[in-house]
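[worker-b] picked up task from shared queue
[worker-b] task type: protein-ligand structure
[worker-b] ligand name resolved to zinc ion; SMILES cross-checked against name lookup, match
[worker-b] sequence length check passed
[worker-b] input payload:
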Amino acid sequence: MARYSEIKKILKSHKLRITDRRIDVLEFFLREKRTMSFKDLEEEFKDSDRVTLYRTLNAFTEHGVLHKIPDDSGFATYGLCHDTCDSEDHYHDHMHFKCNECGNIECLEENVPVVEIPGYQVKEANLILKGTCRTCVA
Amino acid sequence: MARYSEIKKILKSHKLRITDRRIDVLEFFLREKRTMSFKDLEEEFKDSDRVTLYRTLNAFTEHGVLHKIPDDSGFATYGLCHDTCDSEDHYHDHMHFKCNECGNIECLEENVPVVEIPGYQVKEANLILKGTCRTCVA
DNA sequence: TAGGTTTACGCAATAGAGTTGCAAAAATGA
DNA sequence: TCATTTTTGCAACTCTATTGCGTAAACCTA
Ligand SMILES: [Zn+2]
Ligand SMILES: [Zn+2]
Ligand SMILES: [Zn+2]
Ligand SMILES: [Zn+2]
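[worker-b] inference finished, payload out:
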């Protein structure tokens, strides 16, 4: 974790106070480079209070550090935002892939195909693909 | 509700026992012709036990009478299946639309566009559009 | 259609994910 | 350093949904 100054900079630029918890959580996301469920975080930070973790995730989501990945499984999953996201403006048009084998959820590079429905105003589109991911296919 | 015999036939063909509750719930779906959340059903069937409603919805979903619509809101929503669905085989490729104004979720005719991701095996795709529905746009 | 088996129902309790209230602790800024 | 604001930790709580179990209803077969 040689990124302490970088992490501080990210928190500051997103108008978040710098606390030990937030540094730890953000560092974890940056290090793992993958989406994370609440359970993942709970396991990593056993000493931390559940409520604080929830509040950290909410704060990060509100301030454009993380985006919450829509999921029907009942487990919220979070992924890192682009550099350009902040409180006012953070939109994500990319698709997500959930692997039935390993259970991981990935942010894909590709954007959700644009869909137009006559008579409807489409403002947002979430596409979740399920199947077997690259790692598990091999 | 002049469809009693029809409803009975549907239940039988899906290998479901015919009970008063199931007839009522299925009749409600057929009459309303729209997707229904658990709350909708609870309000319609105030005299019924919540658990029975949950179990009815689960049985219908397992036997291909209803399909559960993936939703990140924490409220399960259900829509009628096609005639061809049964316990073994009920797949749905259609998109869903959630209106931010009225809150209703609609099953759309159109299927989810086919997406291929190199290296991945895509087996299922759920696309949920959000915005303003035809009724609320007007 | 009666009798035995299987399944559904109703009630209470429980599980699981997430939130809220509040006092103490920490971060910020002057 | 000190005052102000935000965050943390703990307990209690909300909300959706499930499980266990005894009773009631549906089904099947003779
Ligand atoms: Zn974002
Ligand atoms: Zn993502
Ligand atoms: Zn179906
Ligand atoms: Zn549908």
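[worker-b] attaching auto-annotations
[worker-b] The mean pLDDT of chain B is 93.
[worker-b] releasing lock
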